[in-house]
């Protein structure tokens, strides 16, 4: 297999099937657009298995994804998509950048899901954009963005309700989408790297914020998410 791309969290390889790729999840961790770097032991295993778990759940609820099957603890087989260069952020609670930008305390529940878009560009630091920017730059068609918004809200509904039964609050999360044979489908990953997970009873952070903010217990938090979702443990 040929290495096609290596990002901050994953490696992507070609396969014998031109419509399929293999994704390998790494233990490397970055924050603040790569300014902070480190390693989270077994993160790759957790993110691979958690993402697969969520993709299967979403497929069962009518959301098309790039996921095909798990290949190993760190590897999954996915459909080869053309990534839409628009990252979608869905926010149920104030946290992170929106709290800083708008002067909000962390943990305020919004009356409805707030959707934001950013331009997928490491060089530019993934700047925020709106529908007009997307249209003017030709990043996606109006029909594609309508489908993406609808899928993002559906993902939020399915995962939020599911996670509450696991005593987890889905505070916010980032999604990426790709074009596959003329259809826009969910791609990338859904994991403690891309979501803010809070314990419903204690509000303890169970995600990458523990790494970003030097809170300690990072591996334990990632493992707790995997354990609550699948019953498995990597520690």
TrEMBL record:
Catalyses which reaction(s): 5-amino-1-(5-phospho-D-ribosyl)imidazole-4-carboxylate + L-aspartate + ATP = (2S)-2-[5-amino-1-(5-phospho-beta-D-ribosyl)imidazole-4-carboxamido]succinate + ADP + phosphate + 2 H(+)
Annotated pathway: Purine metabolism; IMP biosynthesis via de novo pathway; 5-amino-1-(5-phospho-D-ribosyl)imidazole-4-carboxamide from 5-amino-1-(5-phospho-D-ribosyl)imidazole-4-carboxylate: step 1/2
Protein's UniProt keywords contain ATP-binding: yes
Nucleotide-binding keyword on record: yes
Q: Which Pfam families match?
A: SAICAR_synt
Q: Which InterPro entries match?
A: SAICAR_synt/ADE2_N, SAICAR_synt_PurC, SAICAR_synth, SAICAR_synthetase, SAICAR_synthetase_CS
EC numbers on record: 6.3.2.6
Task: List the molecular function annotations (GO) for this entry.
Answer: ATP binding; phosphoribosylaminoimidazolesuccinocarboxamide synthase activity
**Which PROSITE patterns is this protein grouped with?**
SAICAR_SYNTHETASE_1, SAICAR_SYNTHETASE_2
Biological process per Gene Ontology, one example term: 'de novo' IMP biosynthetic process
- Protein origin, superkingdom: Bacteria
Q: What class of enzyme is it?
A: ligase
Question: Which residue ranges does the record assign to the SAICAR synthetase/ADE2 N-terminal domain?
Answer: 3-228
Q: Keywords in alphabetical order, please.
A: ATP-binding, Ligase, Nucleotide-binding, Purine biosynthesis
- PANTHER family in the record: MULTIFUNCTIONAL PROTEIN ADE2, SI:DKEY-6E2.2
Q: Which family does the UniProt entry place this protein in?
A: Belongs to the SAICAR synthetase family.
The protein in question is named: Phosphoribosylaminoimidazole-succinocarboxamide synthase
List the source organism.
Calorimonas adulescens
């Amino acid at each position: 297999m040929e290495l096609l791309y290596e990002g901050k969290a994953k490696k992507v390889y070609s396969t014998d099937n031109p419509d399929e790729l293999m994704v390998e999840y790494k233990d490397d961790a970055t924050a603040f657009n790569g300014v902070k770097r480190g390693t989270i032991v077994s993160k790759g295993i957790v993110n691979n298995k958690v993402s697969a778990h969520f993709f299967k759940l979403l497929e069962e609820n009518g959301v098309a994804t790039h996921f095909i099957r798990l290949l190993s603890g760190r590897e999954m087989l996915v459909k080869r998509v053309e990534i839409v260069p628009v990252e979608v952020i869905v926010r149920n609670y104030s946290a992170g950048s929106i709290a800083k930008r708008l002067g909000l305390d962390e943990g305020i529940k919004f009356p409805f899901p707030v959707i934001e878009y950013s331009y997928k560009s490491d060089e530019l630091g993934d700047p925020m954009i709106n529908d007009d920017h997307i249209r003017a730059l030709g990043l996606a068609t109006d029909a594609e963005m309508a489908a993406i918004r609808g899928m993002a809200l559906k993902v939020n509904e399915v995962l939020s309700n599911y996670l509450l039964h696991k005593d987890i609050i889905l505070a916010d999360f980032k999604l990426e989408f790709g074009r596959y044979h003329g259809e826009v489908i969910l791609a990338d990953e859904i994991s403690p790297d891309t979501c803010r997970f809070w314990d419903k009873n204690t509000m303890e952070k169970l995600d990458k914020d523990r790494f970003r903010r030097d809170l300690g217990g990072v591996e334990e938090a990632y493992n707790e998410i995997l354990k609550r979702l699948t019953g498995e443990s990597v520690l």
